[in-house]
Amino acid sequence: MTVRPSDDSADVLAAVFARLGGQADEEVWSELWDRLCHQGEVYEDSFLALPYLAAIAAGRAPGNPQDAVQLAGLIASAADEERSARYAGEFAALLPVARRLLDSATEHAPTFVYLQQCVLAFEGERVWSAGRLEGLFEEEYEIDCPACESTLFIAFGDRGTFASAGDYVTADPPKAPLLPADPAALDPFPARLHRTALATGHTAIASGLTYLFGCATCPDCADVFPVSQQVVDRNW
């Protein structure tokens, strides 16, 4: 996730946060998202909002805790080592709230995934917290074959489970099978994600994790490779 300067100052942010707690909260949150994480970008001044967001999440300031957690989680996912240390107190305050919200996110799959990424971000994980789990509710990933560099679409869910070497939505390109991981043999990190998804009733997300952390066959060159590594390696 790109980190770049913004033109927001501490005074401007303080004024926006001061407007929370009224009938226009939805509008205020929309403005905060636009100022702090426009189109998913995190800016230098976005980190100035973390003390406000931590206070809201902990109930010490007006505002919706879930909105605060999700906005703070996106910001945290872009924190480097120095910022992780500087805002360690805010992350520590946000983490238990994020975990509690995650445990109750039993209905809406995207909300569950966003909150899972927030938990990881506040814990200090900087790979999968940075949007890379969102393909789980989209039920697809675009990656590159490590052997022949073909662009592949990894699909799982209602449209089937396969690796496609082209646009499988509008065409009928060559396809090859996916090789899902055995849930019982997952490494500790994906195993934890899998358990959390099952515990909250998100069976489709749990199934998607077995494909994300399984292998795929390239339909162009027949190379078999781990999907997750190619998700990480692809430019974001």
Key phrases:
alpha+beta; 2 domains; three-stranded antiparallel β-sheet; 9 strands; disordered N terminus
What does this structure look like?
- The chain is of the alpha+beta class and 236 residues long.
- The chain has helices at 10-17, 25-37, 50-57, 65-76, 81-86, 88-103, 109-123, 135-138, 188-199, 203-212, 227-233; strands spanning 3-4, 42-43, 140-144, 151-155, 162-164, 175-176, 178-179, 215-217, 224-226.
- The strands form 3 sheets. A 4-stranded antiparallel β-sheet has the order 3-4-5-6.
- Strand 4 (151-155) and strand 5 (162-164) form a beta hairpin.
Chain-wise SSE layout:
Layout (H helix, E strand, L loop, with lengths): L2 E2 L5 H8 L7 H13 L4 E2 L6 H8 L7 H12 L4 H6 L1 H16 L5 H15 L11 H4 L1 E5 L6 E5 L6 E3 L10 E2 L1 E2 L8 H12 L3 H10 L2 E3 L6 E3 H7 L3
Parallel strand pairs: 1-2
Antiparallel strand pairs: 3-4, 4-5, 5-6, 7-8, 8-9
